[in-house]
Amino acid sequence: MDEGLRNELSKQGVFTTTLQELYNWGRRSSVWPLNFGLACCAIEMIAASMARFDIARFGAEVFRPSPRQADLMIVAGTVTKKMAPLVVRLFNQMPEPKYVIAMGACAISGGPFKQGYNVLKGIDRYVPVDIHIPGCPPRPEALLHALLKLQEKIAAQPLTGEHRPRHLSPDVPGEFPVPAYGPYDLQPAKNDDVWRPALVVRTDAG
Predict the structure, then answer these.
(1) For residue 184, is pLDDT > 90?
(2) How far apart are the two ends of the chain, measured CA to CA in Å?
(3) Residue 84 CB neighbours (<10 A)
(4) In this structure, which long-range contacts are made by residues 17-26, counting pairs with CB atoms below 8 Å and at least 24 apart in sequence?
(5) pLDDT single digits (tens) 123-150
(6) Residue 12 C-beta-side C-alpha neighbours within 13 Å
(7) Cα dist. 194→106, 126, 130, 161 in Å?
(8) pTM for the whole thing?
């Protein structure tokens, strides 16, 4: 429908919409995060749900204690290699459609512990991350901003076509392999369906 005609109808009290807009409006307005934290970023996540910041304004106040009742995983804090399999297992138990926010430098890239042997260099090596929040730690306002960006992403997702969300694509996996504890590192070291390191091409400077 022409946008001008839609505006004129709205002035007369007639509101028009599409099935896609109505469907996505319901999804973006009722995001239920998983009640799950790993390190100091979890304190900022908790603060975002308190009265001063009030995440309830955006329809995301229902932190669920079970992954089977949540559709948003906020990876808040340092992901050690001991915890990485458990994070992936929780993600697999969440029903579709589901989303992931990597909160803080540690969840994105390992942060100040990047050189540690026991810290994962980013949770996006195993599960698909929709929104990254930089900072160490990011403030609650940053989490609210990330939530708004996620809602914008959900609202723009088409129901058909190649850009439709993962849960509407039968060929796209909803569960990913859980890494196992190997003698030296996690096996596999990454999920090829989610993340692959960039190819480094070396050239002669001379």
Answers:
(1) no
(2) 60
(3) 20
(4) 19/159, 20/158, 20/159, 21/155, 23/159, 24/154, 24/155, 24/156, 24/157, 25/155
(5) 999 999 999 999 999 999 999 999 999 9
(6) 8
(7) 18, 6, 12, 21
(8) 0.87
Q: Which domains does the chain have, with CATH numbers?
A: 32-157 (3.40.50.12280)
What the block records as the tokens of 103 is 């909160």
Amino acid present at 197: P
CA distance linking residue 191 with residue 47, whole number of Å: 32
Please give the DSSP secondary-structure letter assigned to residue 192. T
Per-residue b or e along 43-81, where b marks 16 or more CB atoms closer than 10 Å to that residue's CB: ebbeebbeeebebeebebeebbeebeebbbbbbbbbbbb
Whose tokens are 């100040």? That residue is 112
Strand partners, 80: 119
